[in-house]
Structure of Peroxidase:
Amino acid sequence: MPSTSLANMATAATSSKMPVLAALTLLLLAVACRASPYYPLELGYYRYKCPQAEAIVKAVMEKAIGQNPGNGAAVIRMLFHDCFVEGCDASILLDPTPFSPTPEKLSPPNNPSLRGFELIDAIKHALEAACPGVVSCADIIAFAARDASCFLSHGRVSFDMPAGRLDGTFSNASEPLKFLVPPTSNLSDLISSFVVKGMSVEDLVVLSGAHTVGQSHCSSFVSDRLDVPSDINPGLAGFLRSRCPANATSGSGDDPTVVQDVVTPNDMDSQYYRNVLSHTVLFTSDAALLTSPETAKMVVENAKIPGWWEDRFEKAMVKMASIEVKTGYQGQVRKNCRAINHY
Ligand code: HEM
Ligand SMILES: *[C@@H]1O[C@H](CO)[C@@H](O)[C@H](O)[C@H]1NC(C)=O
Ligand SMILES: *[C@@H]1O[C@H](CO)[C@@H](O)[C@H](O)[C@H]1NC(C)=O
Ligand SMILES: *[C@@H]1O[C@H](CO)[C@@H](O)[C@H](O)[C@H]1NC(C)=O
């Protein structure tokens, strides 16, 4: 409804003193002026501040994924590790300094496995050239993860990403250990880790589907999946044993990587759920999705119903990307994603 007709109704309501009409008018005004459904984020946040922002991110991501699809997997995982720790505030990107010698990126859930930092630098560099000091690093991660999902799924996972996140100024390596549970986790620990961040059991099942792309180091699954009896498919186990040292240790110098999804390694699709059903997944945390009737049912739906997972993944990514976002005095727009601004 155009605002002029709302204004006319408001005049009519006050002059005629009709309580019902007045109430209706207020209701209409409330609807017309309501905040973004993504509050405090909004779609098209950079529409006026930096109109090219989203196109720039997309162009860099397209090129990077063309060179190596792992670049897409990297930023999708980065969004998860950013948002679950201190909220989606790019605290994951901060480098060590004398005042903050052990930031999140040095914590075991991130180091040495998390990748994509140089790619974020490249995007930031392009954005600073176009619109200096405008686009936050936290929004860059969110846009990049959205674009990665779109490219890796050949357009089947396609969604708008609201923006307006500010970058945080605090990062501590002890925090990721509190909020990012290890791949050896059982279902109850996985669910708890999602619920404390306002994410549901279904979000857990749906977002775990991101393990349809990317890689894993052997150390992330050897001790609990290969070295001891597990439900892992014997064919996959044999393949993994041929690739991984039996004592694979993170950061040891002998910790090779393997693909997450052995069927369609670079495609963002629902193959992950068919892999869960055939026990052809790497982690205890993946296999755990079959250990309750509720989550097992969701796995089957995601595996079998075309488009089911894609629809839910789009919404769950936007939801995850809104965890504990910072606005106003809570944050800043960093000039360099690796360091906080000093004024
Ligand atoms: C539910 C609990 C989760 C656990 C325990 C978990 C654990 C892991 C582990 C251990 C790796 C391999 C790291 C390595 O050794 O290189 C990995 C990779 C990955 N994870 Fe997760 N993850 C979880 C949820 C998620 C979520 C919610 C997302 C995103 C929506 C995600 C996206 C990815 C991606 C894309 C990779 C591949 C990264 C690359 O290729 O660099 N994961 N995850
Ligand atoms: C980071 O956390 C550790 C352990 O909780 C603590 O000892 C240290 O002081 C923290 N560092 C900062 C900069 O807050
Ligand atoms: C899940 O694992 C935790 C340890 O991380 C353990 O305390 C808990 O009892 C386990 N829950 C179930 C249901 O096995
Ligand atoms: C792993 O085992 C091999 C031989 O079995 C040994 O040479 C190597 O030092 C071990 N590596 C670690 C990190 O323990």
In short: The radius of gyration is 23 Å.
